[in-house]
Amino acid sequence: MDLKPSPRLTAINQPFLRGCNRDELWLQRCVQPACRKFVFYPRVCCPHCGAGALTWEQATGRGQIVSFSRVFRPQHESFFPEAPYYFIAVRLDEGPLFFSRLDRQGLPVETNLIGRQVRAVFVQHTPEQRLPLFELS
Amino acid sequence: MATGGYEGVVIAGVGQTRYEKRTEKTVQHLLWEALDAALSSAGFPMRRVDGLAVTAFVLPPDNVTVVAEHFGLEPRWLSQGAYGGASGVIGMLHGARAIQAGDAEVVACLTADVFDVASHMDLMDRFNSSVRDYLGPYGFGGPNGIYALHTRLYMDRYGATREDFGKQVISQRQNALLNPNALFKTPLTMEEYLNARPIADPLRLYDCVLPCSGGDCVILAREDLVASQSGRRVRILGGGEIHNFPVEDVFSLRGGWERFRDRMYEQAGLGPSDMEFVQLYDDYPVMEFVQLESLGFCPPGGAAEFLRKRDTTVGGDFPINTGGGQLSAGQAGASGGMIGVVEAVLQLRGEAGARQLRARRGMVSGYGMVAYGRGLSCSAAILAQEA
Question: Facing residues of B79 across strands?
């Protein structure tokens, strides 16, 4: 079985990926007093105001499901044994959008998950990397 | 203020290869076949091409410059589309600007790809760094997963139903039955549509395009190089593009087309009600709905209601994707962004065979470059027969 596709570690996303390995969700945040917005995915500049300086802050790991889909046909073979699973878009409490999966199955098929509160749970993604999935709170 | 139009430029030729589920041919071969067919249609020899706009996802490590070498061309203007399925329309618009500026006289706008389901999924898993690093590792399901989220949200917010999407998919299948180059050859019933294999719910099999192989091309030329005779010259009356709109909201369900549509209509001196057909970018039915709304045919959230009252088949009152579109003809990678241009030009030249409309003008739109949760690039153009 192939390993799951893994994010490439770069100078920009290192604090996020290292945080995941400590079961912590870290986000970038703009230092401009007039902006102060949180940023994800990791960038070289603030996409809200264009300023260059971003710091890192630990996030709560809490958010709300914006939309969801049960994926029957994953894009990569390594996910086939888990299908169907819920692919979700989460609006984190800090503001950014985060795409992930629900870690639990077995929900009634007609369940509407839009607006449901979730929290991050970290799982071993590859031997080197842990990543956040989400569970319903 | 409206920017200048596309005066002085004509679409002089059009070509399309055979669409196939599998091929032994290389992408360079399909690019050449589409170019050769379009040059024959335009009546230009290969050596007359001095501008080339190419988009093909599987072209790397080659690029448009190496394509020029391969074909023995000596172009003075080159462009390679980085806008996914918006590239076909954008290549045509940029090529027209190059001709207006005097940077080229005859521009070939060319797309092709060699795809099947497996290679398509492989490409999409590493399409760009935001997909590769922040979607692929979470099992996003490829574009199907992304547009499942948009479809779910659209249905939840606006009350559209699976049947609403099905009606449009089935109408396009009917159109495809009149297109000998479409890969789907049999009608689709609502029951088959609703009960097809689930892919990423609410999307099922017939909401998703069939990745395939093929190539498409149109030839642009300075108008004085092309004899003015019936059916030979198609004009670009207006056009536009926008990228990463709206910046702050991936799930706005608003399409970028609304950002430039007024300027485009003003360039053309026409409005939505003047369009006699629309060739929409149909990677997923929900995006056709968003395009109809963003291009001003109906209000936001109003596409389902709009389509319930209309017949979008070739014989209907509002023909959409008259060759079957990508959903029923097939999506040959980057050619998915050109299939609508080719279909519009065939219709306006009177060369659409059994599916020929009586139409003097229509619209074509493009959409693409899936990144962090949505396609980043939107494009559209209004094309017309020469008066």
Answer: B53
| Stretch (H or E) spanning A14 | helix A14-21
Out of A13, A40, A89, closest to residue B149 by CB:
A89
pLDDT along chain B (387 residues), means of 10: 82 97 96 98 96 97 97 98 97 98 98 89 84 96 97 98 98 98 98 98 97 97 87 92 93 94 97 98 98 98 98 98 98 97 97 97 97 96 92
In angstroms, what CA-CA distances link A74 with A5, B56, B129, B135, B139? 12, 24, 19, 12, 6
CA dist., res. B359 & res. B321, Å (int): 14
* Cβ-based burial of B29 (10 A; exposed 0-12, middle 13-18, buried ≥19): middle
Nearest-CA neighbor of A29 among A9, A15, A18?
Answer: A15
Of residues B335, B325, B346, B280, the one with CA closest to residue B23: B335
Which residues does chain A have within 8 Å of residue B157's beta carbon, measured at their own beta carbons? none
Cα Rg, chain B, nearest whole Å: 19
Inter-residue contact B152 to A114 (CB < 8 Å):
yes
Residue B127: per-residue pLDDT: 86
Q: Identify the structural domains of chain B with CATH numbers, from first to last.
A: 9-117+210-385 (3.40.47.10)
Helix (H) / strand (E) containing A28: strand A26-30
Q: Are A114 and A122 in contact (CB under 8 A)?
A: no
A87 vs B139: CB contact, 8 Å cut-off? Answer: yes
Helices (H), chain B: 27-42, 64-71, 87-101, 117-125, 129-134, 143-158, 162-176, 190-194, 257-268, 285-294, 303-308, 325-329, 339-349
Q: Tell me if B200 and A71 make a contact (CB, 8 A cut-off).
A: yes
Q: What is the pTM of this model?
A: 0.96
- Look up residue A119 and give its amino acid: R
Residue B218: CB partners within 8 Å, gap ≥ 6? B11, B13, B14, B15, B38, B92, B108, B109, B338, B341, B342, B345
In total, the C-beta contacts within 8 angstroms joining chain A to chain B are: 115
Token pair recorded at residue B376: 């980043």
User: How close B136 gets to chain A, by Cα (Å)?
Assistant: 6
Map out the domains of chain A as residue ranges: 14-136
Topology of domain A14-136, per CATH?
OB fold (Dihydrolipoamide Acetyltransferase, E2P) (2.40.50)
Distance from CA of B386 to the nearest CA of A (A): 44
Which of A41, A89, A114 lies nearest to residue B130, judging by beta carbons? A41
Q: How many helices (H) and strands (E) does chain B have?
A: 13, 11
